[in-house]
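REVIEWER CHECKLIST
Item 1: Sequence provided? yes
Item 2: Single chain? yes
Item 3: Sequence as submitted:
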Amino acid sequence: MESPEATVSVAAGPGTSRRRHSPILAAFATSAIGDGLRLAALPLLAVTITTNPVAIAGLAVAGRLPWLLVALLSGVAADRYNRMNLMILVDIMRGLVVCGLVVFIVTDATSIVTLYVVALALGVGETIFESATQGLLPEVIDGNRLPAANGQLYMANLFGTTFAGPPLGSWLFGIGRAIPFLTDAATFLLSAALLGAYRLKHGYNRRVQEQPADRGSVLVEVGEGFRWIRRHPLIRTFLAVSTVANFTQSLVQSLLVLLATRHLGLSESAFGLLLTASGVGAFLGGSLSAWVGIRLGVHRVLLPAVALCLPLFLVMAWTDNSVVLGAALAVNAFLGVLVGVQMSALRQRIVPNQVLGRVSSVSQFFSFGVAIPVGAFLAGLIADWFGIAAVYLFAAAVIVVLLAAVTNQLMPGRVRHAVEALQGA
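Item 4: Structure as written out by the authors:
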């Protein structure tokens, strides 16, 4: 289906989609390690300024706020401009922002407000970079390789932000407060250099060939993303699944520390093992997502993966065994990544490229900007009123409602026919 937007061309020479995407993956992985460094170092820096828990928690809010405020506008930018150039510019700007923070640190001029501004600026850059990445992948990678590419990007992000970055950031902070941030800035600049080298080597040159005078305002273009989703039931279903999935995951994860330490009486180190189990499950989900999609078919994977969350949440609510809880968390993370990767790859294949950034940003707006903070807020209220186990029972009830709403749309035959219709439009 053609969008009324300007026609988009990718002038990159023959066979671009088959070229290796290793430099793009390397850039993404490098940036993810920098993000992981900052996830550990920024709160540690904040504690040297204030011990007020509300002020410290404000850092997380500042980092997440852009998904609510500017994610939709980021999608417009990703559809209007050369996506690779946009990613390079964003990485350079993020590197300069972190360099500015280093100057504040070495001159002993940091304040909690400074950290809020840095977290907010980097969050804005993250939304733009993510929207551009979602649109870039189908431009440079064959459609049948998209599940593998999305899985690799997810694993790179998981490795950088969970396994490698945080411990390295903590260690570097112990050596010197500015060192992890200097390293973070270097990762952004290296990511920009890798993308720039890819662009020079492969001649990527996405450009808008028509610029109609009556193109409309930014809000009109944002609305086009919403309207495209409204017209296509399968993509509308994907939006519902991703939003509700992130909502329930926010419910489950936000009070996991209380479930583990108070309900099960686990030590801090044992709680760390639970997080590791979840990380391993997510890593396996990213590793095997393409293989599962090929062997079973995407249309056969989505509904069972969503449905299996129901018993997993019930297990989390009722188990008194830490091993069982760890296994449930690992399977839950595996299924979550599996579904997320499959839906992202399928969306990239069937949504017209000229509107893909905005369609992706609508999903990010609801999944990250709305679902996660609302889920965390409700988890606190439910636990306060009814106990921690009630949070997991509520998450299970939400999955029941979701299944009642989307089962018909996610039946294998219906998904297959919807994909065929969109690809042939």
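Item 5: Key structural point noted by reviewer: Confidence is low (pLDDT under 50) at residues 1-19, 207-214.
Item 6: Recommendation: ____
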